[in-house]
Amino acid sequence: LVLRAGLALLAWPIYLLSFLGIWEPFCKKVFFPFFLEKISGAHDKKSKKYKQELFRNLPDFRGPSGELRLLEIGTGSGSNFQFYPAGCKVTCTDINPNFQEGLSRNMKKNQHLHYEQFLVAAAEDLRQVPSGSVDAVVCTLVLCSVTSVSSALREVLRVLRPGGAFYFLEHVAAEHSSWTYFWQQVCYPTWKLVFAGCCLTRELWKNLEEAKFSELKIQHISVAIPWMPVEPHIVGYGVK
């Protein structure tokens, strides 16, 4: 509690801006898109081998027509586009519409894909996407900040066709006896405020195990980024 209070004291200008109703719109429009693009570069370098392995079997989930219809939740600036197979039809969604600059840049870099549409939508409410209409759903570093993980996973299962797959890579809570978990607990309140609702201590593998996937593969990995308490990750996929 003392360390939490000390961290809050260091971040008091942000707490003040939040109290005045200024921080959230500024964070959404300016700070978070800028920060996410910068941190995505560092994270992609650390996680590239895991993403390459994760998405390697994406072509196996092509639909009966031979096409691969992919929905990405929380697309952000599109750092995952490079890992998708050629000819893949991509629908992008994000609750924050302020990633246009980075998104356009990555779309130009990855012209091997067909970009269908961009939807401003929360992971928990994908009503614009018809049920059973996609072959694969991708979600990386998103479930940490959704309002309801169980609702988001229900939407994933709804939009997937039977036999389709949900791919994920997320940071999660550390072992409770570890120093990493201790610092996650210290940083939690201020981190969540500063980084647009990101929660450090979610045990997302439990939510995935409780969801109704017919097959689920989860691997616990370490993706260390200096000075950030987000080293523990899970990666894998579930089949509807």
UniProtKB/TrEMBL annotation:
Sorted UniProt keywords: Membrane, Transmembrane, Transmembrane helix
Gene3D superfamilies reported for this sequence: Vaccinia Virus protein VP39 (3.40.50.150)
Record protein name field: MET7A protein
Record-annotated Methyltransferase type domain positions: 71-168
Listed SUPFAM superfamilies: S-adenosyl-L-methionine-dependent methyltransferases (SSF53335)
GO molecular function annotation: S-adenosylmethionine-dependent methyltransferase activity
Bilayer-crossing regions: 6-23
One Pfam entry name: Methyltransf_11
